[in-house]
Amino acid sequence: MGSMPSLNAPRPAHASAPASTPLPGPVSARRAPTVGFDLDMTLIDSRPGIHAAYTALSAETGVRIDADLAVTRLGPPLDLELAHWFPEDRIAEMADRYREIYPAFAIEPTLPMPGAREAVKAVQELGGRAIVVTAKHEPNAKLHLTHLGIEPDAVIGWLWAEAKGEALREHGASVYVGDHTGDVRGARTAGALSVAVPTGPCDEDELRAAGADVILRDLTAFPAWLRAYATGEEASEPA
Q1: pLDDT in tens, 81-124
Q2: What is the pLDDT of residues 119-170, one digit of tens each?
Q3: Quick one: the chain helix, strand, coil %, rounded to 5?
Q4: For residue 113, what is the DSSP state?
Q5: Where are the alpha helices (DSSP H) in the chain?
């Protein structure tokens, strides 16, 4: 990672700070940030929908897929999960078919994570931009957000871990919020502050060890933290 502006300089992993600790730097430099959000298990609880889609794919192909297990490890790209159930020469075909049937099975059952809408709006109410950067197929990601009434300023799909840093840099994001160690790696690749929520497959210890700068219990704590980040004042809501 190259040199980074003081706004984005992450603390060492062992010194990961609670939500009540504002970052150093001039207040004016921290106003109206662009904030990136991961999608699955950060903004949306897609487990019911993904379970339904895997169950349908299994029934259609006659190949056993343990959907209960698959939804415990959301985050990485679809191909990596399909590799547990299909031979290598069928993965591309099955990934295409999964994405085709996904809207029929996965959109309706999916729920917003607590505080998701409010987190996105908190960025926009400060005059900033909220973007979604996800490993999910971009058209399906947009379907989820539209269905749930979550309205980011941009949605960028098909990016995982360090590759997310490309989109974050392109959009000038100074913060990236996610639930997976891959999201932490994406933030650090971009020189963005990593804000982590242990609402997915990775617990707080894993996220901290990966280098998360701030850990919030969930997105309901994000608006207070963001106000502290933008103004330099201490947030009243703990991590």
Answers
A1: 999 999 999 999 999 999 999 999 999 999 999 999 999 999 99
A2: 999 999 999 999 999 999 999 999 999 999 999 999 999 999 999 999 999 9
A3: 50, 10, 40
A4: P
A5: 47-61, 67-70, 78-82, 88-106, 116-125, 138-148, 164-170, 181-190, 204-210, 222-231
